[in-house]
Amino acid sequence: MILTKNGPFAQTMTLPIQRIHAKPRSHGLTMILDKGLGMYGLSDLLTTGGAYVDFLKLGFGTSLLYPADVLRQKLALAKAHDVIAYPGGTLTEIAYCQNNFENFCREATEIGFAALEISDGTISLSERKRTAMIGTARRSVSVVLSEIGKKNGSTFSPKIMARQAERDLAAGANYVVVEGREHGHSAGIYDNRGEIDVSLFEEFLDHLGPESTTRILWEAPQKTQQVAFMKRFGSEVNLGNIPPNDLLAVESLRCGLRSDTLATAMCFSPQNVEVGEQRE
User: Fold this and answer.
1) Cα four-point dihedral sign 220, 223, 225, 227
2) Could you tell me if 30 and 242 are in contact, meaning their C-beta atoms sit under 8 angstroms apart?
């Protein structure tokens, strides 16, 4: 469902920017950051906009705090809406530090998670260990995401991060997430004001192959970041760490239903349309 034939205004209007890919899709992905939605909250979100959600990340280590039956119900609900749910990479790091990574992967699958994320945002992983963990995760779930970049404000080295992304994809990761944290500043390619460091960003892209670029998922919790990525890559760019309340706002940006992206749709030239004049 992108805009159903029976949807509101379906006989009167079309989307200024048509979504190319419907679910299940590999481009134009939206990952929602769930920091503790209850069953009713998640149900409301997916009933309203489930067609626009591809990934649901249960942030940080919050998965450990749910009653087991509630967690299973949440994951079942996500699955019913064709949403791929996975625990935050921090939980993976904890499992690794406790020498329980393989058991963690197995139990995550049994509970109902459909994907896993491999990251070293807080800990350090050797290239060999990281590759092995991606392989282990792939044996448990069909979708594996890796994350590059640190959470503590460490310098983002474009060349090193690009090489890591390429290695992760070669090891079996489906997508590589570029760290942006929940707030979208002082991490990865963002400065302390949440603005994209253009030189870091472009250098990172220069070291990535064109096919790899389409498999990057940019954590972009702020509107200005979302707009910047859409203007750079188009509406089918992959975006993550989207707050639940911003789901329809982000989809509106993708579809040209907000002023920030409407101009790129070129559906009309505002300077040629007078107030009250109907465009033919």
Assistant:
1) positive
2) yes
What are the C-alpha distances in Å from 195 to residues 5, 40, 70, 181, 199?
39, 34, 37, 13, 12
Give the pair of three-digit tokens for residue 237: 């760019």
- 51-91 tens-digit pLDDT: 999 999 999 999 999 999 999 999 999 999 999 999 999 99
Instruction: Give per-residue pLDDT as tens, 249-278.
Output: 999 999 999 999 998 776 544 444 444 444
Residue in this structure with the two tokens 């067609």, named with its chain if needed: 51
Domains of the chain: 30-262 (3.20.20.70)
The pLDDT of residue 280 is above 80: no
Q: Given the structure tokens 């069909």, which residue do they identify?
A: 142
Amino acid sitting at position 207: H
